[in-house]
Structure formats: structure tokens, C-alpha cells
Specification:
Elements: E1 2-10, H1 15-30, E2 34-39, H2 59-67, H3 85-96, H4 102-111, E3 115-119, H5 120-126, E4 137-140, H6 142-151, E5 152-157
Parallel strand pairs: 1-2, 1-5, 2-3, 3-4
Helix pairs in contact: 1-4
Length: about 160
């Protein structure tokens, strides 16, 4: 076990929870720690690039993809969402308080060397293809995550 290694499972696509996970990840990486973020189920929506599309999907995969938020700019709040008003208010307050936006946080995390792993099983179940994800994302299964977690001193589930 290494005290300078951290892992975070990102299960949620709620804006506030994703923001917390990215703040923790970038904070640890800025302190010199090795950080791995494992995005699974709803958390995969964080890694979806709004500009990218993938072909070869079944009707159900296309429908599922249309019902989920695509990318960090489309994420709802876990509480007080109010049909999208809550996230707009949160983004306004973040900007007013000079807090980086989620796209900026994602970019900063990658620049600091935070490893993003997309769960292969969740991608298959949810019909998400690698071509739809932001650049720099690795694909891995539970064994990949468990390998990372077994070496880490801190493992978080968000």
C-alpha cells in the first residue's frame, strides 16, 4: 500500500458530486500523489464528449444515450435541480466565486496526471462507445480498478 496513491470511484453524474471528486483528485495530484478515477455507470456521462458520436449502435443503445446527460456541461444537481435552474445557478455562483468550471477541472486533472478509467462493463451495458469519450481516457474493468485500489492508501466512492 502506498500513502501517495489515491483512487476514486465516480458512480454519480450529479454536478455537485462530480465537482467534489475532481476537487479531491486535483488536490491530491497537486500534492504529488498518483490519482486514478474510475468512472462507472452514471459516472460515465462525465467522460462523454458532447461533440463526438459513435456509429453501430442498436435502437435501445441510441435511446439510452439520448436519455442520459452527455458531458460535464449537461450534468444535473443531486438536490435542487428544478428542471435545470439549479445547475445554472450553481455554475453562475462558481464563476462569481472564481471556482473553475467542470470542463476546466477535467482538463486540469488530466494535466496534473490524474488517470481516468472508464468501466468497460458499464460502457457495454449503457451502450457507450470509446469513440464518444473525451481524449485520454483508458478503458478497464473491475480487475483494473482493484489492481489500482490494492496499491492505494485512500479509496473513495462518490
Amino acid at each position: 500500500m502506498r500513502e501517495d496513491k489515491k483512487t476514486i470511484i465516480v458512480f454519480s453524474n450529479d454536478l455537485d458530486k462530480v465537482m467534489a471528486s475532481l476537487v479531491i483528485a486535483t488536490g491530491a495530484a497537486a500534492m504529488g500523489d498518483e490519482v486514478t478515477m474510475f468512472f462507472t455507470f452514471w459516472g460515465l456521462n462525465v467522460l462523454r464528449d458532447a461533440k463526438k458520436k459513435a456509429g453501430g449502435k442498436s435502437f435501445l443503445e441510441k435511446m439510452f444515450g439520448m436519455m442520459m446527460p452527455k458531458g460535464v456541461d449537461k450534468l444535473p444537481l443531486s438536490k435542487l435541480n428544478f428542471l435545470g435552474i439549479g445547475p445554472r445557478l450553481m455554475k453562475y455562483m462558481m464563476k462569481k466565486k472564481n471556482v473553475n468550471s467542470l470542463p476546466q477541472m477535467l482538463k486540469e486533472a488530466q494535466e496534473l496526471g490524474v488517470k481516468f478509467i472508464a468501466c468497460s462493463m458499464s460502457m457495454d451495458v449503457m451502450g457507450i462507445k470509446k469513440e464518444e469519450l473525451i481524449d485520454g481516457v483508458e478503458i478497464g474493468g473491475v480487475a483494473t480498478y482493484l489492481g489500482e485500489a490494492s496499491e492505494a492508501g485512500v479509496n473513495l466512492f462518490i
